[in-house]
């Protein structure tokens, strides 16, 4: 059985089929990229997995468990973290507290304990703080710890979103266009981090990406979508040479 | 300027980042403790109201400032706390019991208000909370067997462990101060733990909060419950301070006053709630002054400029009539809100931060430091 599986996943908005009977599987420890022209349904698939949308039909399995009906907040508890295409950070909070929210799925303390800030809460907070520091070190975010998000440049925000997702210690991470809006150098950094996430942290990566050089560098496999349907699946070169994919990008 | 050198994760957790805070808050606490022996009884009474308003302000800040759920219904929560106390008092329930019972009941009702509010945001939530407040006001006026209707209820003098505590005694003031300090410390504790961070996450992006594993509905209800419970505690003290409560004390205007507390205090900070409370409590003596002294003063000025005695008299009576107009207080509140939103969006505490930074950076202060800027338009797609 595959690690993560989508079966006949569909999302219809009235007559518009944003995602149309898409099936794919992600193996443990691989980096799978989803490519496709604008409006192909890539981000919609992500929003289906993280339950922002409810699928019209189809099922989603993670670690052999059907997660199609799980409430959205439980998806993170299962170990699936995500980033957003148009950065969704907590603007008026510091970088540290943004990252600590990423630790939310590991918090075990009760409200009354927190009101009194009992030693157990303090110990937990220190533990969370230590884990966050490991992620900060991994992504070179040291200069920004106490800065407010609202004052940071786009490139840094992008990395912080990745950091927040990593703070939840996910098993599967969904990256929605990790390189959009980044310059060449930042994109390079991003590609190293994505590979390190796989090799050092053992995280399975599912990503949506437009930058083909990044896709080629990091992906083990690629899925091409158009109009909500799977056009091709396979290694990066195979998919890019597939006639349907070429037609979708360049016109028939 | 002081640079903090952090060597331990504890440095990010502790409430006072450096020793200077202990000194300044220690002095503040000492001043507050000796206040009853220094200040006049009128000012002491105002100080008690500051404590009560600041407690409600902190409660509202948890809900509106940190969780981002606006509420114009906090006067109703205050009323529920006050009436619970007055009602239980009739059956000789001791103070600690009805104090906590009032908090618990208000908290439960707060959670119940939170449930329907889950689907509402922004202005719709405000309307829902106003309706809740109006319903409570109506119930207080109609449920005569419990609330004594529009005639109101007399609240007996507080008796704590067999000792009577009159409402103008130093002990009552210390009690209010203790409730305020405990509320503030509890809130600070909350803010440095997962729950507080979840609140802030919900305020800034519900979608992201959800995808990080925050059960948004649960935390919104929690926020409503905590906020209401604290307001309920404040309501008990409020009832004792006034010694008489009736439905017309808990009107929409009181809810607006609480909003003003956090708006004028500003900067989404607990400091702001306290500063805002001082402001709102001290505006009453100012209005009284306006009513009593200003008409005579204006008449005097008019006379000095050569107006006849009759003209000066008519000016005096006209100004006096204006100053005692019914809606004047509301109008002044409205003007204050508008002016603050336009010219001092960070409120009194924001102004204090600016002054502090000016001295810290002395020759190098830049005016643009606090300039509001919007760099990115956030996506509204996933809301």
From TrEMBL, chain A:
One of its GO terms (molecular function) is ATP binding. SUPFAM superfamilies: P-loop containing nucleoside triphosphate hydrolases (SSF52540). Keywords: ATP-binding, Nucleotide-binding, Transport. CDD domains: ABC_Mj1267_LivG_branched. GO terms for cellular component: plasma membrane. Residues 4-252 form the ABC transporter domain. Involved in beta-(1-->2)glucan export. Transmembrane domains (TMD) form a pore in the inner membrane and the ATP-binding domain (NBD) is responsible for energy generation. This is ABC transporter. It comes from Bradyrhizobium nanningense.
TrEMBL record, chain B:
It comes from the Bacteria. The chain crosses the membrane at residues 21-39, 45-63, 95-115, 122-143, 172-191, 212-238, 258-282, 294-312, 332-350. GO terms for cellular component: plasma membrane. It is a multi-pass membrane protein. It is found in: Cell membrane. Pfam families: BPD_transp_2 (PF02653). One of its GO terms (molecular function) is branched-chain amino acid transmembrane transporter activity. InterPro entries: ABC_transp_permease (IPR001851), LivM-like (IPR043428). CDD domains: TM_PBP1_LivM_like. Keywords: Cell membrane, Membrane, Transmembrane, Transmembrane helix. This is ABC transporter permease. The lineage of its organism: Bacteria, Pseudomonadati, Pseudomonadota, Alphaproteobacteria, Hyphomicrobiales.
């Amino acid at each position: 059985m595959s690690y993560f599986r989508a079966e006949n996943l569909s999302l219809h908005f009235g007559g518009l089929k944003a995602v149309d009977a898409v099936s794919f599987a992600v193996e443990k420890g691989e980096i799978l990229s989803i490519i496709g022209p604008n409006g192909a349904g890539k981000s919609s698939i992500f929003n289906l997995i993280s339950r922002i949308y409810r699928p019209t039909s189809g099922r989603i399995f993670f670690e052999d468990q059907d997660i199609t009906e799980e409430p959205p907040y439980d998806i993170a508890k299962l170990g699936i973290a995500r980033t957003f295409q148009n950065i969704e950070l907590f603007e008026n909070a510091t970088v540290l507290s943004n990252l600590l929210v990423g630790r939310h799925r590991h918090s075990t303390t009760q409200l009354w304990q927190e009101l009194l800030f009992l030693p157990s809460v303090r110990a937990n907070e220190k533990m969370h703080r230590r884990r966050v520091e490991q992620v900060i070190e991994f992504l070179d975010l040291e200069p920004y710890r106490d800065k407010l998000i609202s004052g940071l440049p786009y490139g840094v925000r992008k990395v912080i979103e990745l950091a927040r997702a990593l703070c939840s210690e996910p098993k599967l991470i969904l990256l929605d266009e990790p390189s959009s809006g980044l310059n060449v150098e930042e994109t390079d950094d991003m590609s190293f981090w994505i590979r390190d996430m796989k090799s050092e942290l053992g995280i399975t990566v599912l990503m949506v990406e437009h930058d083909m050089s990044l896709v080629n560098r990091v992906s083990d496999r690629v899925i091409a979508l158009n109009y909500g349907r799977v056009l091709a699946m396979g290694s990066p070169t195979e998919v890019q040479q597939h006639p349907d994919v070429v037609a979708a990008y360049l016109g028939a | 300027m002081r640079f903090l050198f952090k060597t331990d994760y504890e440095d990010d957790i502790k409430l006072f980042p450096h020793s200077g805070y202990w000194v300044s808050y220690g002095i503040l606490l000492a001043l507050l403790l000796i206040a009853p022996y220094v200040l006049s009884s009128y000012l002491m009474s105002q100080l008690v109201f500051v404590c009560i308003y600041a407690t409600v302000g902190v409660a509202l800040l948890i809900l509106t400032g940190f969780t981002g759920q606006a509420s114009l219904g906090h006067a109703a929560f205050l009323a529920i706390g006050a009436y619970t106390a007055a009602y239980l008092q009739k059956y000789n329930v001791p103070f600690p019991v009805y104090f906590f019972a009032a908090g618990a009941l208000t908290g439960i009702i707060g959670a119940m208000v939170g449930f329907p509010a889950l689907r509402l945001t922004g202005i719709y939530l405000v309307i829902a909370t106003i309706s809740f407040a109006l319903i409570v006001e109506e119930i207080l006026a109609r449920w005569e067997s419990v609330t004594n209707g529009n005639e109101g209820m007399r609240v007996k003098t507080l008796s704590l462990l067999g000792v009577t505590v009159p409402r103008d005694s130093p002990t009552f003031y210390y009690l209010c101060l203790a409730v305020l300090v405990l509320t503030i410390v509890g809130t600070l504790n909350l803010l440095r733990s997962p729950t507080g961070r979840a609140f802030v996450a919900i305020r800034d992006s519900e979608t992201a909060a959800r995808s990080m594993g925050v059960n948004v509905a649960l935390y919104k209800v929690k926020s409503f419950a905590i906020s209401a419970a604290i307001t309920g505690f404040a309501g008990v003290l409020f009832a004792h301070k006034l010694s008489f409560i009736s439905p017309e004390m808990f009107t929409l205007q009181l809810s607006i006053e609480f909003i003003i507390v956090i708006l004028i205090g500003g900067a989404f900070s607990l400091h702001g709630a306290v500063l805002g409370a001082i402001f709102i409590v001290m505006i009453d003596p100012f209005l009284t002054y306006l009513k009593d002294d200003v008409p005579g003063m204006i008449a005097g000025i008019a006379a000095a400029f050569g107006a006849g005695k009759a003209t000066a008299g008519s000016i005096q009576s006209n100004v006096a009539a204006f100053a005692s107009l019914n809606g004047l207080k509301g109008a002044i509140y409205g003007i204050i809100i508008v002016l603050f939103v336009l010219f001092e969006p960070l409120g009194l505490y924001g102004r204090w931060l600016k002054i502090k930074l000016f001295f810290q950076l002395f020759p190098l202060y830049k005016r643009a430091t606090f300039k509001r800027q919007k760099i990115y338009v956030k996506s509204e797609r996933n809301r």
